[in-house]
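Run log // design_07
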């Protein structure tokens, strides 16, 4: 008897042509916890930590709408140094802040709660997070780990593998934090190229899922601008106005730098037919995508 073909959600999404732009989850604060043992399927939620400490961190994160990710270096090395934790902020004015600490016992993680209220250090290099959460989704491991290796070889101090960041079918996924930029559909070669450009403040639309301080329709509009006008810096453009009418948005994108144009982008939402969206999620589900209807310079 012929074995059934194994399903890989990222491969299926590429074959379908699932739209990438407009798929970055909203957020401006990240909590990172280095955890060198095996990651539970549900990440931080599944850790058997001291209950009161776990509750404190969880409640503080929920109050700030912060995302908690477990992290580790590629290769699962276990150095003699204690594991680290971090709180990363992206402020409303675009300033980036980071606070780092170490934990020798689970109770040390309670320091994260205070760090969420502190300004943190600025002028820190960004953190490159590669989703490699294989027990959550097979594609995250199969596609994420080669990307984690390639990026780690190039920028060893910046790169961490991490738990689920959302959008398994777009693996390999890379998040630059606290910049708040999601990249997807990456392999080892394209990941290095995308991050080289990002670190040079030259963001391209090719693998861009979106900016986490924008809603999906705005992300899709800005991606269309970058595809039309060419690569630009993280804060080269701003969203001046967004008007929604039913399933359509009219997004006014303004330039923050001289020499760049302003645009009006019309975006339409559509819902896909029900289908299997993740490797482990057997139930069919639909996803919302965003099509650019028109783009004009103003």
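design_07 sequence
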């Amino acid at each position: 008897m012929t074995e059934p073909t194994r399903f890989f959600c990222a491969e299926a999404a590429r074959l379908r042509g699932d739209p990438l732009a407009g798929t970055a989850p909203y957020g401006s604060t990240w909590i990172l916890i280095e955890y060198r043992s095996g990651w539970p399927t549900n990440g931080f939620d599944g850790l058997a930590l001291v209950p009161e400490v776990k509750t404190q961190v969880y409640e503080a994160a929920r109050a700030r709408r912060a995302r908690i990710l477990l992290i580790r270096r590629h290769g699962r090395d276990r150095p003699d140094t204690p594991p680290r934790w971090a709180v990363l902020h992206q402020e409303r004015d675009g300033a980036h802040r980071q606070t780092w600490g170490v934990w020798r016992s689970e109770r040390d993680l309670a320091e994260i709660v205070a760090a969420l209220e502190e300004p943190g250090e600025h002028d820190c290099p960004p953190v490159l997070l590669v989703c490699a959460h294989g027990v959550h989704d097979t594609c995250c491991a199969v596609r994420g780990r080669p990307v984690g290796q390639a990026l780690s070889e190039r920028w060893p101090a910046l790169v961490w593998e991490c738990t689920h960041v959302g959008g398994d079918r777009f693996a390999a996924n890379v998040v630059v934090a606290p910049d708040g930029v999601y990249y997807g559909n990456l392999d080892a070669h394209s990941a290095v190229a995308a991050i080289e450009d990002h670190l040079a403040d030259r963001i391209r639309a090719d693998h861009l899922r979106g900016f986490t301080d924008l809603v999906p329709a705005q992300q899709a509009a800005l991606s269309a601008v970058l595809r039309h006008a060419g690569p630009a810096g993280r804060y080269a453009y701003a969203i001046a106005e967004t008007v929604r009418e039913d399933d359509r948005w009219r997004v006014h994108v303004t330039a923050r730098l001289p020499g760049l144009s302003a645009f009006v982008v019309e975006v339409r939402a559509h819902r896909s037919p029900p289908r299997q969206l993740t490797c482990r999620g057997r139930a069919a589900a639909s996803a919302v995508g965003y099509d650019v209807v028109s783009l004009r310079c103003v």
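The chain is about 25% helix and 30% strand.
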